[in-house]
Write a structure and sequence with these properties.
Blueprint: H1 3-15, E1 19-23, H2 41-46, H3 50-61, E2 66-70, H4 79-83, H5 96-99, E3 111-116, E4 121-126, H6 143-146, E5 153-155, E6 161-164, H7 174-181, E7 186-189, E8 193-197, E9 202-206, E10 211-214, H8 219-229
Parallel strand pairs: 1-2
Antiparallel strand pairs: 3-4, 5-6, 6-10, 7-8, 8-9, 9-10
Helix pairs in contact: 1-3
């Protein structure tokens, strides 16, 4: 539910598509507002989950459309459950791990493209032949893409946020965790999301134990913050 999909879902809902499921693992931040048109400053100040904030705005645009908001991280474990019962999937993901779950390899291009939209010029440079001993290009062994494990941390592109996703969920409900964390920072929470403000490092914690550590880029630092304030 980033820049392109906030526009796409707006058009789908206003057109009267009967059912729309919104899936996003992220929360709204001030840096999103210049391009992600469904959100506003209050959403960013509250650190609201993007799927939930978008659903609220879309329901006001067309109350006849059924909208389901899921604050989930799409992985190989849950993709079939989340995506198999809909007619059309509109892919707005920002990482290759999810994109390769469509198994749609045919459209892939063996070239690098650049576009100058001001002058309406587009150029494509084809890549050379693969090295015979290259595991990926020649042997088609994609160990990272085929790994059936979920990494503990995932660095987000384009901004200072690291996702921490432990293998096990939270040991206590969000309400109990919120009471404990009030001693170390400003805490806001609802049934689905807890927001801890540690000054330069806000933390967004979800009910399944997944957390977004904002203001950091180092995975080790994110793990340390998670372990210190939330626990494993």
């Amino acid at each position: 539910m980033g820049a392109l999909r906030t526009v796409t879902t707006t058009q789908l809902v206003r057109a009267g598509v009967g059912f729309v499921r919104l899936i996003d693992r992220d929360v709204v931040e001030p840096s999103n507002l210049q391009r992600q048109s469904l959100y506003d400053e209050q959403d960013a100040q509250m650190g609201r989950a993007k799927a939930e904030a978008a659903a609220q705005k879309l329901k006001m645009a067309n109350g006849d459309v059924a909208i389901e908001a899921l604050t989930e991280d799409v992985t190989w474990r849950n993709a079939e459950h989340l995506l198999s019962d809909v007619d059309v999937i509109v892919d707005g993901t920002d990482n290759f791990r999810v994109r390769y779950l469509t198994q749609n390899h045919e459209p892939l291009s063996n070239s690098v493209g650049t576009g100058d939209v001001w002058n309406n010029e587009f150029h494509f440079v084809r890549l050379g032949s693969p090295k015979k001993d290259c595991p990926c290009c020649a042997r088609h062994q994609f160990s990272s893409l085929e790994a059936r494990t979920d990494g503990l941390t995932v660095s987000r592109c384009g901004r200072q946020t690291v996702q921490v996703h432990p293998s096990q969920g939270l040991a206590k409900p969000l309400a109990e965790i919120a009471d404990r964390l009030k001693r170390v920072g400003d805490v806001r929470h609802n049934g689905n999301l807890l927001r801890l403000d540690l000054g330069d490092v806000p933390v967004s914690l979800f009910t399944n134990g997944r957390a977004l550590i904002h203001g950091v880029e180092d995975e080790a630092a994110a793990k340390s913050i998670y372990s210190r304030y939330i626990g494993w």
